[in-house]
Design brief:
By secondary structure, the protein is of the alpha/beta class. The chain folds into three domains: 105 residues, Rossmann fold (3-Layer(aba) Sandwich); 67 residues; 197 residues, Rossmann fold (3-Layer(aba) Sandwich). 46% of the residues lie in helices and 17% in strands. It has a six-stranded mixed sheet with strand order 8-9-7-10-11-12, sandwiched between helices. Strands 3-2-4-5 form a four-stranded parallel sheet, with helices on both faces. A two-stranded antiparallel ribbon has the order 1-6. A hairpin with a 2-residue loop joins strand 8 and strand 9. Helix 4 packs antiparallel against helix 5 and helix 5 packs antiparallel against helix 6. The longest helix is centred in the middle third of the chain and has 34 residues. Bound molecules: guanosine-5'-triphosphate and magnesium ion. Monomer. Associates with the 50S ribosomal subunit. This is GTPase HflX. It is found in: Cytoplasm. GTPase that associates with the 50S ribosomal subunit and may have a role during protein synthesis or ribosome biogenesis. Keywords: Cytoplasm, GTP-binding, Magnesium, Metal-binding, Nucleotide-binding.
């Protein structure tokens, strides 16, 4: 019997590794690695060192070059480090080749994200979705994934599996995948019925990169208690609440955050959770404007929305964490007029890009929330009138 193990253990010490491609700057890669370290922290590991290497193409056998790998090995040896995390997806043979040299557990970014999702999954649906994505990820990598799987009842040591064992494992994993697919189909049927019961309400969905403040805004607007914290992927399950602003009701959903290089299988198996996004009428795209890479993050979210076929919807861009942004951008020597001018320019440029559909807020300090409410309400009412022109009032 094969069981998926939790990949990262608590307080485990890790080294992280990233490749620098031709078109990337060193700074960009450092920021990507900041994100990888934050992911590792979310999973419970502590990053003690990071390595980068400039390469035109990843090495087929070991992803990074032999020299760099040796450098990592020397650093690890004699230290209490048990995990090396790569920022890009590795093949099964790359994992096994690298593990042979480093003699510690080797994982990649996708594996780490899947591990976090597995920990965070609460509902039956989320659990099955993550498990499905994990086994799909494992299937082509069985050779290298020895350390990820636990053989229950089999007294086989840490020696890698032989060919026949891999074949058997492959069959077991394939069976698991089809079983999980069936279970997911059943759960999906139930949630489809639930969604159909929502009648003629306009549906609004909060979307955005992970950790931008979606759940905080959800709580603020709906007075509900959705789990929000400074960790990646705090929210995995969609929460939907009925919200009423000045007698204008609509349904507001908080959804799972997106991230750069979200494992493909994860997007696939989270399709039903993300149906909430696909079927919504209006998107609230939340952006953490205090993040140095916020424009990149907007791009990642737009690409993911395209992938989900949920891109062409009326969208309001919510630029959140203005308090932090101002703290980072302005110093005390700057004249107030200059600050106002800079803020005005920022707003104007985004207003232009979003055709007037941007709101700048601080959810934490509750700044500009009235304008946000008003903007959402106008969109909801407009849409409702378009959809139900025979109804004179949108009151319940
Ligand atoms: N400074 C500041 N922090 C904020 C603001 N809004 C949210 N935060 C913080 O940002 C962190 C993430 O907030 P969440 O609401 O959990 O973000 P999320 O987008 O739901 O994140 P995931 O569910 O993990 O994708 C929390 O620590 C919040 O307190 C804000 O306006 N200013
Ligand atoms: Mg959240």
């Amino acid at each position: 019997m094969l069981e998926k193990k939790q990949v990262v253990q608590q307080e485990e010490k890790a080294v992280i590794v990233g490749l620098i491609h031709q078109e990337q700057s060193e700074r960009q890669v450092q920021e990507y690695l900041d994100e990888l370290a934050f992911l590792a922290e979310t999973a419970g590991a502590v990053t003690v060192k990071r390595y980068t290497q400039k390469l035109a193409h990843p090495d087929r056998a070991t992803f990074i070059g032999k020299g760099k790998l040796e450098e990592v090995r020397q650093f690890i040896s004699g230290r209490d480090i048990s995990l090396v995390i790569f920022d890009d997806e590795l093949t099964g043979s790359q994992i096994s080749n690298i593990e042979k040299v480093l003699k510690v557990k080797v994982i990649d970014r996708s594996d780490l994200i899947l591990d976090i999702f597995a920990r965070r999954a609460r509902t039956a649906q989320a659990k099955v979705q993550v498990e499905l994505a994990q086994y799909q990820y494992i299937l082509p990598r069985l050779r290298g994934m020895w350390t990820h799987l636990e053989r229950l009842g089999g007294g086989i040591g840490t020696r890698g599996p032989g060919e026949t064992e891999i074949e058997t494992d492959r069959r077991i994993v394939k069976d698991k995948i089809s079983l999980l697919r069936k279970r997911l189909a059943e759960i999906d049927k139930q949630s489809l019925t639930q969604r159909k019961e929502r009648g003629e309400y306009i549906r609004v969905a909060l979307v955005g990169y992970t950790n931008v403040g979606k759940s905080t805004i959800m709580n603020l607007l709906s007075k509900s208690e959705v789990f929000a914290e400074n960790k990646l992927f705090a929210t995995l399950d969609t929460t939907t609440r009925k919200v009423v602003f000045e007698q204008t009701p609509f349904l507001l959903s908080d959804t799972v955050g997106f991230i750069r290089k979200l494992p493909h299988h994860l997007v696939e198996s989270f399709k039903s959770t993300l149906d909430e996004v696909r079927e919504s009428d209006i998107l609230l795209h939340v952006v953490d404007i205090s993040h140095p890479q916020y424009e990149d993050q907007v791009e990642v979210v737009n690409r993911t929305l395209q992938e989900l076929k949920a891109f062409d919807k009326p969208t309001i861009m919510i630029f959140n964490k203005m308090d932090l942004y101002e703290e980072q951008t302005f110093d005390k020597w700057l004249a107030p007029e200059v600050k106002q001018d800079m803020l005005r320019q920022l707003k104007e440029s985004w207003d232009l890009r979003t055709h007037g559909n941007s709101v700048f807020i601080s959810a934490l300090e509750r700044r500009n929330i009235d304008e946000l409410r008003k903007t959402i309400m106008e969109k909801v009412v407009t849409l409702y009138r378009e959809r139900y022109p025979y109804k004179t009032e949108y009151f319940y």
